[in-house]
Amino acid sequence: DRFTVPVWLLEASIEYPDLQTDLLYNLFDQSKPLWRYVGKEWLIKILKLYTRIPLVAAHALRLALMALLVVKKLHLDRQLTTELIQVCLLHDIGKSLCPDLINAPRSLNEKERGEVRKHPVHSFGVIEKNKIDVSERVKILVVTHRNYEKQGLQHIFELNADGELLQEILFVINRLDDSQNFTRAFHHRGKEDVAKVLEELKTLAKE
């Protein structure tokens, strides 16, 4: 497996010389617990879309790994587990359309922040354009994950109890990732092993 990873990373690094290939390689290596649910090739396809925004990829992967901890506690079936992991990995994929804003070494102005806030809709577009194989429920959860109730989208998209449960889990672990400053800290310790972050989460879960 370790010899197959550089193929797509090499292609990406040729196209983008400033790419953080070591971070992306590390993320792929730490994604192995997810393979049994979403498949190795599927996950490679997603990581390739994240190549220009590896710190966002790290955030998405942390959520997916947190999701595994949650589903074990809730005893979710395989389909719901797979869908939750897919939502975690895809909810910010729309940010790949504005890498210069995401990677900007400065505070964004209001117009730029407004553009970034459109990422849930862009995420849906990325899924459709790249023919990413997910259920309709995953697409709905991706496009409505931000400010869901404020936008009144719950009246447009019908989610059953299972869908609402997945939505709530995503909301909670997203907040947890932010509240523990993992996202911001990753900008400073960007090459840190994701497994170490997961260990921190396991410790938190026991408290």
Number of helices: 13
Report the uncertain regions.
148-156, 181-194
| Shape type | globular
Global mean pLDDT: 76
How many beta-strand segments?
A: 0
Chart the SSEs and their pairings.
Elements: H1 5-15, H2 21-30, H3 32-38, H4 40-49, H5 54-74, H6 78-90, H7 99-102, H8 110-117, H9 119-129, H10 136-143, H11 161-179, H12 182-186, H13 194-206
Helix pairs in contact: 1-2, 3-4, 5-6, 5-11, 5-13, 6-10, 6-11, 9-10
Task: Give a short overview.
The chain has 13 helices and no strands.
Characterization of the model:
With 207 residues, this protein is mainly alpha-helical. 68% of the residues lie in helices and 0% in strands. The chain is built from 13 helices and no strands. The chain has helices at residues 5-15, 21-30, 32-38, 40-49, 54-74, 78-90, 99-102, 110-117, 119-129, 136-143, 161-179, 182-186, 194-206. Helix 6 (78-90) packs parallel to helix 10 (136-143) and helix 6 crosses helix 11. It is globular. It starts with a helix and ends with a helix.
Record keyword descriptors for this entry.
13 helices; 207 residues; mainly alpha
